[in-house]
Amino acid sequence: MASLFFFFFVVLLFLSATNPNPSYVSAEERESEFDVLTWHDYSPPSPPPPPPSPAPPYSSCEADLAGSGDFETTCEVLSSVELSRSIYIKGNGSLVLLAGVSVTCPVSGCEIVVNLSTHIKIGSNSKIVAGRVVLTSNNISLAEGTVVNTTGLAGDPPERTSGVPTGTHGDGGGYGGRGASCYVRDGELQEDSWGGDAYDWTGLSEPDSYGSKGGSTSVELDYGGGGGGRIWVVAEEELDLEGAVVADGGDGGEKGGGGSGGSIYIFAAKMKGSGNVSASGGNGLAGGGGGRVSVNVFSRHDDTQFSVHGGQSSGCPENAGAAGTLYDAVLKSLIVNNNNYTTQTDTLLMEFPYQPLWTNVFVKNCAKAAVPLRWSRVQVQGQLSILAGGILTFGLTHYPYSEFELLAEELLMSDSTVKVFGALRMSVKMLLMWNAKLMIDGGGDTIVQTSLLEASNLIVLKEGSVIHSNANLGVHGQGLLNLSGNGDMIEAQRLILSLFYSIQVGPGSTLRGPLINDTDDDMAPKLNCDSETCPAELIHPPDDCNVNASLSFTLQICRVEDVDVSGLIEGTVLHFHRARSVSVSPTGTISATGLGCKGGIGRGTMLENGMGGGGGHGGKGGDGYQNETLAAGGVSYGSSDLPCELGSGSGNDSLSTSTAGGGIIVMGSWERSLASLTVEGSIESNGESFKGVITNSSTGGPGGGSGGTVLLFLQSLTLGNSSVLSSAGGSGSHSGGGGGGGRVHFHWADITTGDEYVPVATVHGSVHTRGGVSKGQGYSGENGTVTGKDCPKGLYGTFCKECPLGTYKNVTGSDESLCYACPSNELPHRATYISIRGGVAETPCPYKCLSDRYHMPHCYTTLEELIYTFGGPWLFGLLLTGLLILLALVLSVARMKFVGNDELPGPAPTQQGSQIDHSFPFLESLNEVLETNRQEESTSHVHRVYFMGPNTFSEPWNLPHSPPDQIADIVYEDAYNRFVDEINTLAAYQWWEGSVYSIVALAAYPLAWSWQQWRRRKKLQRLREFVRSEYDHSCLRSCRSRALYEGLKVATTPDYMLGYVDFFLGGDEKRADLPPKLHQRFPMTLIFGGDGSYMAPFNLHSDNVLTSLMSQAVPPTIWYRLVAGLNAQLRLVRRGNLRSTLQPVLRWLETHANPTLSLNLVHVDLAWFQATPLGYCQLGLVVYAVEVVLPSPSPRPSLDGRPSPRPSLDGRSFPRPSLDGRPSPSPRPSLDGGRPPRNDHHHLRDRTGQGEALLGHERNREATMRKRITGGVIDIHSLRTLKDKRDFLYPFSLILHNTKPVGHQDLVGLVISMLLLADFSLVMLTFLQLYSFSMVDILLVLFVLPLGILSPFPAGINALFSHGPRRSAGLARVYALWNITSLVNVAVAFICGLVHYKSSTKKHPSLQPWGLGTDESGWWLFPLGLVVIKCVQARLVDWHVANLEIQDRSMYSTDPNLFWQS
């Protein structure tokens, strides 16, 4: 019952209390407890609602305002009116005040009330002055310069309010904000004193109270300014405000306080204009508080200026009156704006409405707002903004015993301060701070010791923003906590950060708990320094992340996904719980250095003179030493396997010079490890070093503190190059010992092994727990411990790395000695040990071959695997050889069955009555001779004109201009020359044909040869078609030839290198001397086809025309045999080696041909013809008629009668011969084709042989006379000086050239088959060998030259299985070309093998050869074998071609009789 009476007594005191001014309150009352409560915790009650006013008497337009008209229509006030009493105007009309007209009632509390239905229009520069003004109409217009003013004309404020200050200190009046007071009592602060109090909080939305007058400094005289009046402007439709609506407090001067601002209420559906609305406090000795303004306008179009600031104080310029309130009823926003006037006087924010909630609250421009009621809730629907020097205070300064709630969407702070006296529970979506401070004073009351700040989306601190609490502080969120940079700080005695997605601690920013140098505070966490028991919450922390003062944490980051540290996180017991990743940048630090115990279990001994030993922990502390006096260092304590102790200091808590040990840093927990820790900066829990100065050398100093504990429960760790993970001892004084090192322990989460193993740590930085040193004679502390969880099999060390290469570990543990060396006998040659994921747990240890070209398990190459599959090199070689022989036999039998007897040696069956030997391929044209009428062609043939040039792309065929004498009588010279031009144009090749040949020749010469032959054949067809059907034969004189397109015929040798044009008579010439007989054609030129190369050897082509002509002098069988024998000799002639290879031809002509031909009075000589501009010279025969006249012996002249110049096949050293055509002085024998009488052959030969040397002069003279030949004769003498041109392909001719037949065709074919198969086998083996080197080597060998190494095999098979000697010989030559071309590929294979051998020798010099041909030292065997086989193949193919082309071996008989008899 007594307590109930006491409660009512206190309530009565609150209701009746006034401002406790010292002038009116006795000293006894000021000292009473109740006086303290009323002074500091005063909250004025809301005034009771006023009683309804009686209906006032209404005024008239003319009588009261001296206007014209009335209020039912329009009342115009034409001149100024000063009233002495209140007036009330009501009607349905309008009121118009003309420009410059004033309606004033300068009496306090005087009222001018206008309520008209239509319009109120106040002209420019007009005034309405009164204590209360009410303007109500549909439309209201206040022109520019218009003033509705109630400044200082307030009536009495509401009853039971304390807006008017008491005492004689000249305090300001209060209303919307408290009035200022420049008087401060002893022991108090400026903010503890104020003048008139605030009132009428409930009228905030529709204010209608007078302001309060200011106080005076005199009892007799009232110097205080009057309070502001009341103004209501109500426009049902539109308000046009260009003037001013003013309800300011009156100024008090130097001896009085300013009055408070009055009240203004504006209501309109639409408002425009840029006028001013002010209810500010008046200036004075102490400024008056601002009034109250409420705006209820649905649509605002212009920027109207509103002012509700407090008045300025001349007595205390830094303490203006408190700002009033500006309330926007439409937006439901409250603005407290002091117009940047500094104040320490509060604007009271009483109860906030809950239904509906305010949208926004702004405290700005140096306004100072306070929430004084205990256990208050500040709740807004939108933003709570404290800006531009604004201050928001919760609670009473000296009584921090309450708890406050703040709920908003956003709390925005910029250059502002929020002070909380007590505890704050804040819940917002975003907290944004820019150079702002949130200061929480817990006051030491355990009931309000914990504040909770929750921002569901974002907390950002920038530009030195601070959140400070001297008690416990929990900061929660679901989004981002960002401390952006220098000066940004969150600190508390115990700080818990939880539930954020990410925490970013920028460079220069700080998270701290506990406060520095505040350990004596009642709210400071108590350290567990003397217990060896590990607190359970360090290993098994609770998951709720609540602030719990009973736990040992001083700073905990709990349930945060990512923590990025570029600044400082500092605390005594730091704990990161249920975080995903922590990243410490190069500028970042997580520190518990020097925040451990000053005493502790391992404290160093401190002597009376102040000398102390270092603290101990992981290592023993160093002993202090001075003047032969020893101070023992602290002992080591704790467990290295799971450390969780604070470091110990040197001394005790009572000594200011004592040093402290390091704190505890724990990341993760036993149940929930930290997923990732990345450190580029530092994590340290070092002992404190002595930093003091000892002036007296006889006085000792303390030792260093020991290192603390760093306990990491991790899944992965990354330490950068510059990172430091430290728990080192501190340095001692000049006589103190160094602190012992602390403990660092890595407790890895479950480490996966085997293929799932991932390295748990990447360490490039430093991890150390070294002992501290002494700065003088003391001893250094011992090093601490760095330990890790025992590693599973295959891993070792603190960071559970894989055992070194070549070792294995089959037990659990971390010691490196548990990694045993692998057995060396299980490692093959060409192999090396490899590391595998998770380390090697069992033997045999894994290994790999030295290169990818070796294959597991024996590290053989592909070739070696093949070889050793069949028993090794020697057995494999024997098996391969036997297989090749077997396959070759099968291939030979198949070839014999397929080809038949086409290539069998010996004469072929001849036609009935014919003596032609078909075994001679160069006599194939005789078949045509027998099957056609040779007589018809020979009887009309006139002359044969040979094309110059070898018919190549660079030197095509061309006919010489000017018709020769032989055809001068049957052609028109001009038409002939035109014909030659057309023929030469057609004979020329296109540029692209030569380009294709050049390109293909570089890549694959056999293909280029085939391309050239194809284009030659096409060119011949084109020339024949032109002569046969396109050319009109206009060069011929014969009309019949021109009409029938006859008389010309283009032909060529089978190799398409020698072309010629035959001219025939048309049959209507009527010339008895045409065509000429054979003796008239002598000397006659027979040019060889071919060019002396392997593919086109020299040969004499005897077609039906030539055979018919020669039959006039030589029997056909002799001529056929002669041509076959000559061609057999010409096969052996090689361009580039003509001097040696033409000598057998010359001897054969002298021993075999001419002796027999001379019996028919014919002689042949070897000669050169028609040198081209590019130097190509054709070879051939010159056929002479022989007369049995023996002139005096003389050297054989040239065909022009002069000594023969030095012959040359390049045509550059020969002058063109000129035959003078002089007639022969000797009678010419008859050459009618009759055969001379047959005599004994030996006798004729002897006779002929005796005179042969003497006939040359006569023959050359005969040729000179007839002017038939252009060129020179080649004999033994001129051959010595013959120049021979060699091309780049000449070296291949040393291997590949035509030879004499050897017979044994089947055996040769069998051996070729064997070598062909052996070649292909070696190529495949070479590819296998190259594959073991590199795939690039295979590609090089394959495509340099392209596919050259593979082409011989199909080419050889094609040649062996072709029908007909001529076709087989041609394909065999192509096969030979591919075979010799592939030597380039073999050379590439040789180079690749050499390069590989050199490189492998450098990489693996210790390897020993272990099998012939199957390791690096045998790289040359297969390329060399291919070279040998290809060279042997080349020789066998030469024999094979010779056997095919020369099936009668008597062609090369040295016995002429045997030759002619065959």
Task: List its traits.
1462 residues, alpha/beta, 44-stranded mixed sheet, seven-stranded parallel sheet, 66 strands, elongated, disordered N terminus
Give the percentage of residues in beta strands.
Answer: 15-25%
User: Which range best describes the helical content: under 10%, 10-25%, 25-40%, 40-55%, 55-70% or over 70%?
Assistant: 10-25%
Strand runs, count:
66
The outline comes out as elongated
- Uncertain ranges: 1-42, 903-934, 1189-1257, 1263-1267, 1406-1414
Q: How many angstroms does the end-to-end distance come to?
A: 164 Å
Largest sheet: 44 strands, mixed
Overall radius of gyration: 63 Å
Return the structural class. Answer: alpha/beta
Mean pLDDT: 83
How large is the count of helical segments?
Answer: 28
Describe this structure in words.
- With 1462 residues, the chain is α/β, with parallel strands linked by helices.
- It is built from 28 helices and 66 strands.
- It has a 44-stranded mixed β-sheet that branches. Strands 3-6-9-11-13-15-17 form a seven-stranded parallel β-sheet, with no helix packed on it.
- Helix 9 crosses helix 15 (1104-1110), helix 11 packs antiparallel against helix 12 and helix 16 (1116-1130) runs antiparallel to helix 18 (1143-1158).
- The relative contact order is 0.04.
- The model is unreliable at 1-42, 903-934, 1189-1257, 1263-1267 and 1406-1414 (pLDDT under 50).
